[in-house]
Amino acid sequence: MVKNKGLLARTCKKCKKIIDEKSLYDYCPECFKKIEEVFEKIESYLKEYPGATAFEIEQETGVPYHIINNFVRDGRLIEMPNEYLNFECKRCGCLLLSAHHKYCPTCREELEKEMELAKIQLKQSMNHENAKMHIRHGENKRKK
Ligand SMILES: [Zn+2]
Ligand SMILES: [Zn+2]
């Protein structure tokens, strides 16, 4: 039982489980771990793409917008106005709100596949890597 010494027992902000009064965090250890994992995801994305919008982070990392907003409320993320944004995907026209990407993740995947395919085709056509190209005159007189 938790003894109430005139103070309200501290509860996890997320799952409402009672936590140690002396805990450094407002979350129980399990929730804290989950939150940290999510935050690290956002953090590493922001390292690669500084100033990414919440919308973009959600789209790219799969972290829901309201969770990103929680970090803003907790003061772990700071919102800044964005001067330059690509509002929509240049390929499919879906909402993008990104200063970093011109295409949505789906289209980027598609484009990458197309690029890979083009590369493979290019490689195939250059199978004889160091071969010099000659215009063939008449019959093929290949010397062994
Ligand atoms: Zn919890
Ligand atoms: Zn798209």
Descriptive keywords:
single chain; binds zinc ion; mainly alpha; 5% strand
Can you offer a commentary on this structure?
By secondary structure, the chain is mainly alpha-helical. It is built from four helices and two strands, in the order H-H-H-E-E-H. It has helices spanning 29-48, 54-61, 65-73, 105-125, and strands at residues 86-88, 95-98. It has a two-stranded antiparallel sheet with strand order 1-2. It is elongated, with a radius of gyration of 27 Å. The model has no long low-confidence stretch (mean pLDDT 87). The structure holds zinc ion (2 copies). Residues 89, 91-92, 94, 103-104, 106-107 line the site of one zinc ion (ZN). One zinc ion is lined by residues 12, 14-15, 17, 27-28, 30-31.
SSE layout and pairing:
Layout: H1 29-48, H2 54-61, H3 65-73, E1 86-88, E2 95-98, H4 105-125
Antiparallel strand pairs: 1-2
Bound molecules: zinc ion (2 copies).
One zinc ion binds next to helix 1.
Protein name: Flagellar operon protein (TIGR03826 family)
Organism: Marinisporobacter balticus
> How many DSSP E strands?
2
Rg of Cα set = 27 Å
Low-confidence stretches: none
Derived from helix and strand composition plus strand pairing, the structural class reads mainly alpha
The hetero compounds bound to this protein are: zinc ion
For the terminal residues, how far apart are their CA atoms? Answer: 91 Å
Biggest β-sheet: strands ordered side by side in the sheet: 1-2
Supply the number of helical segments.
4
Series of secondary-structure elements, N-terminal to C-terminal: HHHEEH
Proportion of residues in β-strands: under 5%
Could you give a short account of the major beta sheet? 2 strands, antiparallel
Helix content: 40-55%
In one word, what is the shape? elongated
Report the average pLDDT across residues: 87
Organism: Marinisporobacter balticus
Protein name: Flagellar operon protein (TIGR03826 family)
